[in-house]
Amino acid sequence: GESVGLHLPTLSVQEGDNSIINCAYSNSASDYFIWYKQESGKGPQFIIDIRSNMDKRQGQRVTVLLNKTVKHLSLQIAATQPGDSAVYFCAESGGATNKLIFGTGTLLAVQP
Amino acid sequence: EAGVVQSPRYKIIEKKQPVAFWCNPISGHNTLYWYRQNLGQGPELLIRYENEEAVDDSQLPKDRFSAERLKGVDSTLKIQPAELGDSAVYLCASSLAWGASSGNTIYFGEGSWLTVV
């Protein structure tokens, strides 16, 4: 039968380039943010997190930036590698329920 | 150290049949979660356990879904009867404790992929 494709936002980069994945969050009461990486057929994998009292946090090859004024979060990946190809989700928590709420994923496609 | 372990990895059932998923969290993690992930979307929380107590099941469709964590370690999630719209990935996750902090990072299993036909 006919299949319906799902259109995730997609970022296509060349191997070795830097990648920037963006996320807009909705709850101004959120005070903790996480980036997860999900490879095909696997569960989400923790990458990096940041609290709202910070605006930047660095890990190995990854940097998360938080702009609370415009409720925007970004994940920067340096020297992107083929193994970075995956769907990336931002997640926020805080406020009354403190639940972890996932945003819409972004598909990162690394071209060799 | 082993991560969150789930089984079965894949399950295909006919509608109206029952299905159960099993989860073994990371050792020492008191908080256990079941999430559902539809294709192309982020995971959505179904239920959260603190030890053996279900402290947040507000998103669990209780007419057909049930879960238990009898000894505060392993957990099962059951659907009876399954409907076509239940086709999704069921993710189990765990954390040391509840609360948004780096020390309570939520770790996910590989998921149980359910197809209802």
* N-to-C series of helices and strands of chain B: EEEEEEEEEEE
The helix tally of chain B amounts to: 0
Helix content of chain A: under 10%
Query: How much strand of chain B?
Result: over 45%
How large is the radius of gyration of chain A?
15 Å
Could you describe the largest sheet of chain A, including whether it forms a barrel? 6 strands, mixed
Average the pLDDT over all residues of chain B and give the rounded result: 93
- What does the average pLDDT of chain A come to? 90
Taken from the alpha-carbon principal axes, the silhouette of chain B is globular
Q: Could you state the order of secondary-structure elements of chain A as H and E?
A: EEEEEEEEEE
Name the chain pair with the biggest interface and residue counts per chain. A-B, 26 and 23 residues
Note the quaternary state here.
heterodimer
Alpha carbon gap, first and last residue of chain B = 37 Å
Poorly predicted segments of chain A: 1-5
- Nearest-angstrom radius of gyration of chain B? 13 Å
Number of helices of chain A: 0
Mind describing the biggest β-sheet of chain B? Answer: 7 strands, mixed
Number of strands of chain B: 11
Could you give the distance between the termini of chain A? 33 Å
Helix content of chain B: under 10%
